[in-house]
């Protein structure tokens, strides 16, 4: 096979057929060693947030002006190798400021021939991170690599800047969509958290701060065992779908596996019935609790869940046990530090305030069901985009 056919990505934009070039990084980039100025803001570089002003992320350190003079200037359009470079911590700055001398800063030698967004994406690919390990192997956690170490890496790139730009812009737009759906997901989660605080009475109160029109009666206090049957006994089917503690995330069932009665784990004991609420008794702060609403009679949950069969609205109960003050009450009665856990008997004795009007329960439950569905929708869209990006990074780079 010719070299031209070998040095091409699996997927590329129409109209581009030339082989990609390979050069050492030091032939493509130049290091920046401009010393700092104490009047410029101090920057920090993280893989989570990129290049950020330290003061904006709550890091307000009083620096000695003599120390700041040794800091390096970072300009918009500079590449920065973060202190966790061995994990692929290469960032493109959009800010002016100064950063610790430990950071490595560089720019393309020929800006008219290289596209920054292309290289920004290249530095995030799995292939580049694996290549990076060839020079960072053995570097202790927290140390950045030097430009000379980075400069020896051999990098592939399209010689046509137009192709670089198309690739860079494409992934920039994809990153924008990912950020947009992440923001929507965070907003939905924050809305749910806020409503959980306001739609249930606070400790000692009989009325929630926010409620649906037409409901004015005080809520009444009930032990959980008075409004739900705990761990009802049942005969397991010969074959069933087993749900362990890793199978529920948030309020979603993300997995299960087929087991037989003879070979199943001893913890497989809770046979689910429509409307049952399963409360994770181990590490309850994770809030991985599930309302069983599947049309099957062969799902069996681990004894790591307390099974509640409510006499009140099921989704109201699920929402109630997700509320932060309830979780705190559970943790106060839990044992263990690394893996706090509460047994079903102690959980059953916890008291909560409940509206006696079933219609109010149903309205509250329906609201939180809608919010959970919205959260799930945004989560799936986000994961789909992230998987798309991962696959495209593999196919559009060498």
Automatic annotation (TrEMBL):
<dbReference type="GO" id="GO:0004519">
    <property type="term" value="F:endonuclease activity"/>
</dbReference>
<dbReference type="Pfam" id="PF01420">
    <property type="entry name" value="Methylase_S"/>
</dbReference>
<dbReference type="InterPro" id="IPR052021">
    <property type="entry name" value="Type-I_RS_S_subunit"/>
</dbReference>
<feature type="domain" description="Type I restriction modification DNA specificity">
    <location>
        <begin position="272"/>
        <end position="386"/>
    </location>
</feature>
<protein>
    <submittedName>
        <fullName>Restriction endonuclease subunit S</fullName>
    </submittedName>
</protein>
<keyword id="KW-0175">Coiled coil</keyword>
<feature type="coiled-coil region">
    <location>
        <begin position="368"/>
        <end position="395"/>
    </location>
</feature>
<feature type="domain" description="Type I restriction modification DNA specificity">
    <location>
        <begin position="19"/>
        <end position="187"/>
    </location>
</feature>
<keyword id="KW-0540">Nuclease</keyword>
<keyword id="KW-0255">Endonuclease</keyword>
<keyword id="KW-0238">DNA-binding</keyword>
<dbReference type="InterPro" id="IPR044946">
    <property type="entry name" value="Restrct_endonuc_typeI_TRD_sf"/>
</dbReference>
<dbReference type="InterPro" id="IPR000055">
    <property type="entry name" value="Restrct_endonuc_typeI_TRD"/>
</dbReference>
<keyword id="KW-0378">Hydrolase</keyword>
<keyword id="KW-0680">Restriction system</keyword>
<comment type="similarity">
    <text>Belongs to the type-I restriction system S methylase family.</text>
</comment>
């Amino acid at each position: 096979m010719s070299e031209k056919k070998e040095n091409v990505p699996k997927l590329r934009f129409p109209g581009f057929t030339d082989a990609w070039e390979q050069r050492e990084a030091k032939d493509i980039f130049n290091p920046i060693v401009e010393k700092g100025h104490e009047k410029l803001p101090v920057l920090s570089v993280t893989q989570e947030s990129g290049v950020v002003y330290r003061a904006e992320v709550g890091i307000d350190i009083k620096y000695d002006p003599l120390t700041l003079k040794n800091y390096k200037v970072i300009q918009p359009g500079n590449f920065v190798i973060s202190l966790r470079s061995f994990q692929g911590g290469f960032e493109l700055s959009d800010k002016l400021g100064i950063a610790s001398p430990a950071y490595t800063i560089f720019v393309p030698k020929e800006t008219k021939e290289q596209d920054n967004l292309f290289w920004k994406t290249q530095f995030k690919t799995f292939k580049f991170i694996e290549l990076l390990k060839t020079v960072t192997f053995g570097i202790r956690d927290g140390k950045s690599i030097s430009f000379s170490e980075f400069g020896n890496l051999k990098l592939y790139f399209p010689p046509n800047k137009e192709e670089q730009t198309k690739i860079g812009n494409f992934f920039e737009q994809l990153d924008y969509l990912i950020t947009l759906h992440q923001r929507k997901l965070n907003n939905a989660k924050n809305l749910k958290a806020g409503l959980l605080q306001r739609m249930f009475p606070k400790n000692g109160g009989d009325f929630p701060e926010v409620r649906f029109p037409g409901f004015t009666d005080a809520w009444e206090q009930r032990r959980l065992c008075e409004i739900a049957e705990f761990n009802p006994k049942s005969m397991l089917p010969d074959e069933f779908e087993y749900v362990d503690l890793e199978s529920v995330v948030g309020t979603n069932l993300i997995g299960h596996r087929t087991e037989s009665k003879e070979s199943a784990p001893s913890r497989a004991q809770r046979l689910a019935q429509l409307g049952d609420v399963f409360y994770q008794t181990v590490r309850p702060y994770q809030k991985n609790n599930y309302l069983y609403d599947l049309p099957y009679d062969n799902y069996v949950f681990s004894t790591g869940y307390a099974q509640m069969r409510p006499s009140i609205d099921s989704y109201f109960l699920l929402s109630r046990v997700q509320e932060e003050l309830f979780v705190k009450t559970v943790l106060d009665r839990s044992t263990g530090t690394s893996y706090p856990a509460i047994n079903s008997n102690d959980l059953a004795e916890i008291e909560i305030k409940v509206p006696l009007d079933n219609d109010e329960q149903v309205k509250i439950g329906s609201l939180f069901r809608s919010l959970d569905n919205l959260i799930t929708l945004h989560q799936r869209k986000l994961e789909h985009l992230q998987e798309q990006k991962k696959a495209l990074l593999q196919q559009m780079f060498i």
